[in-house]
Amino acid sequence: MIRDMVLLGLWGLVRDRSRIIEKLHDLGVLHLQEEPVEYVSTEAAADLKLLRGKALGLLESLGWNEWSSIPRKALEEKRSVLSSPDEAIIDGIRDSLDSFSTRVTERIRLREALGSRINSIKGALRTVRHFDSFISENSGKGLEITLWWAQRADVADLAARIRKMIREHDPLGSDDKTPYHLIVSPGGERILAIAYPSEFRKGVSAILSSRECLPWILPGEYETMSFQDAVPLMETALEDLPRRIGEIERNLMKTRQEWGPKIGALYVLLDEKIEEILVETGSDTRGEIFRLSGWVPSDEKDRLETELRGEFRERILLRWRDPHPGEWSEVPTSLSNPEYFRPFELFLRLMPVVSYKGLDPTILIGIFFPFFGGCMIGDMGYGLVIGALGLWFRKKVGRPMLNDVGSILLFIAAWSILWGVAYGEAFGDLGHRFLHLEPLWLERSQVVIPVMIFTISLGFAHVLLGFIMGMIQGLRTGHRHLWLERLGNILIFMALLSGMVLVKGWLPGQFFTISVTLLVLGLALLLAGGGMGGLVEALGSVGNVLSYVRIAAIGLSSAILAMVANSFVDSMGVTFVGIFMALTIHLLNFVLAIAGSSLHSARLQYVEFLGKFYSGGGTRYKPFSRRKPELWKKH
Amino acid sequence: MEKALIALAAALAVGLPAIATAYAQARIGSVGAGTIAEKPETGGIIIILEALPETMVILGFVVAVMLILQFA
Amino acid sequence: MFLKDLKDLPENYGYLNARLRAHFSDFLVKEDYRRLAFRRLEEIEVFLLETRYGKSFRKSLVEQPLSTRRRIEVALADTSADTLNHARKMAMGEPEDLMTVLLARADLHNGRLLLRYYFTGALYEGHPQWHGYGTLPVTFFADLWKSHSITHVIDKCLAFDHQLSRALGRACGQVAKGSSLPASERIFLSGVLTYLDEILDSHRTKDSALVRELLGRSIDIWNMNIWSRVAAGVLPGEKAGELFIEGGYSLSADRLRNSSRPEDLLASTPWETILGRFQGGPAEMVTGRAMREFWKWQIAQRRKDLLGIEVATAFIAHQLLEWQNLNALVVGVDMGLEVDTIIDKLVLTG
């Protein structure tokens, strides 16, 4: 059912404005006529938005996302602090957020710096290890060793020049060789290690630099050390640094747990306040008076009035009126259905919002969807498993969508069991074999035609119901073309029905004239209502009726697959393989049964049924209200 | 031999429309998904368009059942 | 085997395009720019904070003390790169390759920045705003920027082992030899085009033909740029011959060499439409107008084929244009320009 709406016009004093808006926010039933425009943000809103951005940024860098853990009580308590934020409060919040974020950022940066230090030490050690034996051998001889990037240099030539230089200065030098060692890294970079007496450091460096070699240096504080001193220190650092990172991480985790909910609460409050400020700036203000207007479900009217009167007494003026027909397209649609059928509102979420004066099909979907689905599954055993699955879904706390799906599954389960009784199926023919179950109606895997005829009749009735709904819809909204066309279709359907009954000889021949009259009348109405398009659509609806054969087809394949599963035990005996195969096929069949039946049953609702009368183009009812913490995830 | 031909005819009656439907639905599905992503309010009409080609298989199924029941 | 087949399914476009089409509504529209042009820088920031650029803003609000304008620039660059990289990750098979080609303009942009930097020799600390959605990683360019010597840049380019980096290495070699900047840029551009052509050659479809057309149009614009410099007398005519690039979409080498007025150059080509708007205007304006036209052409692809590369082409253009427009807007507002002057600098479509 679609709730009736009334339009509220509210006049109040400007000095009460923010309190009135806060009260409306608390009550959460008013759907504002003009959505607050984000562009007109006052200075205060801009400041708050920046603060909100900071708070959220802080939460993001802390990696905190447990919105549902914000204690509701804390929110209520702190709400009053922000209810009229002056500059001092905003500045205070900004300062504390800033100093907090500096601290957090410092730690995050330190963690990153330590991480990259680990990487550079690891990289350096990897390179140095290539030269391990070279270093130990030559440093034993008292030589100094340096490493160089030698991209294109001719290494042999360089070594010769260095040797020449050394011999020029020290002709009596005992060793006439300048040891060097060259490696090529997998990335194609060439690194050269060279050993020489330390007094030639400058000369060697000059020669190498002149040939486009760049010094390879140890990272950070190890830069000036010799390899032999640096390597053990680096190895110790590799053990020590991860420990320090771990410490910082624990610290951050603690901060996250302690401060996350608090900053989260601040974010929520700021967001609410910004919304209120936007509504305030959007209100129509003249002198000392301001005006707000919006839609309220008529069943909430009294509560809203009492609450507002209780607080603001005669300082507020409320005017109510029903919507004019010209306004119907603007009135928001709010659905209200009996508790049992409420889960089926899920189906309408895929469709455009139903218009205010449209017909809410939830209850009808709630009746037909599980009925068709159950007819396709038609197995007591599968029905019980689906029921168990539904119960499990319903127990999932805090997942409203899954709860709804669970309830829908329970409906399908009930109908599957009932249809299972009619077909005499429990896990295929297992029930028949062990419990001697006999079909109450017929065995669908043996007799196909009666089930097909039954499903087509079902389709006939369902589509006819759709047309009747369409006619009602047309009459309600005063769309003459719509109801004429739908009535024409109904008459043609009746003519077809009576025609078939006549052919079967169940009615006396005189009824033939009635059939023809119905047909002619129907065609005339159809043409008057929908023109040639209507005629084509009427042909299409015959196809729609045939489409219900799918119920029989899917049911048949499901029944046969279940029997195939059981036959594995027949042919392979009660062995592990036999039972395993049987269970696997049953599982497959079960998945297919749930997916196939719900998908096809849904299709029959959407295409064949709703297509006949559903009218979208409505506006979703979005009351000006505070969001629930668990919904904050989707910011 | 005759039975085999009838079975083949029935299989073709379901199989060929199924291939055609699959092809059409794949195309409509991919473009339809984009359309819904772009304009969620078109959801209803896209569901209908996506469902249209299915009628072929249903008719094929009816023909197949008729073939088997009439001749086999 | 099966997976290999899967890579070339036409449905790859279906998936990618569905996801891309969902995001077209995120882009700003004409009215947004108009309204923003009236606002102060701080207000523009607050507005962008509410959009998809928000995440980057929030990060810099918490982490770095930057000026409002710098914060906006960083957020625009980061978010644009993220968006485009994310878009490429959604593609698979042919569309992925074609998107690599479409996004190679980032490599071109980064490479040209680097060439100019080493060409002018004005080394300074700090770094430019890299375009982070290309094939070569931004860290590679940042590393080259810090090298301070063109010889090391060449070394690193050649050692990086990618066709694009080698092309950049060769272009840097030209700079080191003392060639002109356009000549070096031309070497880089040809290298990039050869690489992209190889990718395109492995897909002979109508979609790769479109991407080829887009490359052709880019070459046209490069050539028009050279032509207009010759026409304006900035560049001697005899040198221009070797700077033109073959393979343009509609401007042949002959036409480029023998035309002296925009009318001669562009008449009866797809670029003809820009002639009408600047009757008798200076020749230098040709490139700017053509660029505008090129953006519009890319964006107009959006609905041409819902199961083709057209959607991605338009998506990329939308994102890059939005970035460019917002940057121009921010600079304009920061300099206190008139609203009309600011709007005039933007390329607004749709």
Task: Summarize the topology.
The complex is a heterotrimer of chains A (635), B (72) and C (350).
Chain A: E1 5-13, H1 17-27, E2 31-32, H2 43-62, H3 72-79, H4 87-130, H5 132-140, E3 144-149, H6 155-169, E4 180-184, E5 190-196, H7 201-210, E6 214-216, H8 227-282, E7 284-286, E8 289-297, H9 301-312, E9 316-321, E10 332-333, H10 362-377, H11 380-394, H12 400-423, H13 430-435, H14 449-477, H15 480-504, H16 511-546, H17 549-572, H18 576-609, E11 619-620
Parallel strand pairs in A: 10-11
Antiparallel strand pairs in A: 1-8, 1-9, 2-8, 3-5, 3-6, 4-5, 7-8
Chain B: H1 2-38, H2 43-51, H3 54-71
Helix pairs in contact in B: 1-2, 1-3
Chain C: H1 2-7, H2 11-23, H3 30-37, H4 41-49, H5 54-63, H6 68-90, H7 94-103, H8 105-120, H9 138-145, H10 150-159, H11 163-177, H12 181-201, H13 206-231, H14 237-243, H15 253-258, H16 262-266, H17 285-299, H18 310-334, H19 339-345
Keywords:
heterotrimer; A: 635 residues; alpha+beta; Alpha-Beta Plaits; five-stranded antiparallel beta sheet; four-stranded antiparallel beta sheet; B: 72 residues; mainly alpha; F1FO ATP Synthase; 3 helices; 0% strand; elongated
Account of the protein in words:
Chain A has 18 helices and eleven strands. Chain A has helices at residues 17-27, 43-62, 72-79, 87-130, 132-140, 155-169, 201-210, 227-282, 301-312, 362-377, 380-394, 400-423, 430-435, 449-477, 480-504, 511-546, 549-572, 576-609, and strands at 5-13, 31-32, 144-149, 180-184, 190-196, 214-216, 284-286, 289-297, 316-321, 332-333, 619-620. In chain A, the strands form three sheets. In chain A, strands 1, 2, 7, 8 and 9 form a five-stranded antiparallel sheet that branches. Chain A has a four-stranded antiparallel sheet with strand order 4-5-3-6. Chain A has a two-stranded parallel ribbon with strand order 10-11. Chain B is an all-alpha fold. Chain B has a single domain, classed as F1FO ATP Synthase. Chain B is 89% helix and 0% strand. Chain B is elongated, with a radius of gyration of 17 Å. The N and C termini of chain B lie close together (11 Å). Chain C has one domain (10-345). Chain C is 69% helix and 0% strand. Chain C has helices spanning 2-7, 11-23, 30-37, 41-49, 54-63, 68-90, 94-103, 105-120, 138-145, 150-159, 163-177, 181-201, 206-231, 237-243, 253-258, 262-266, 285-299, 310-334, 339-345. In chain C, helix 6 runs antiparallel to helix 18 (310-334). Chain C is globular and about 55 Å long. Chains B and C meet through helix 1 of B and helix 2 of C.
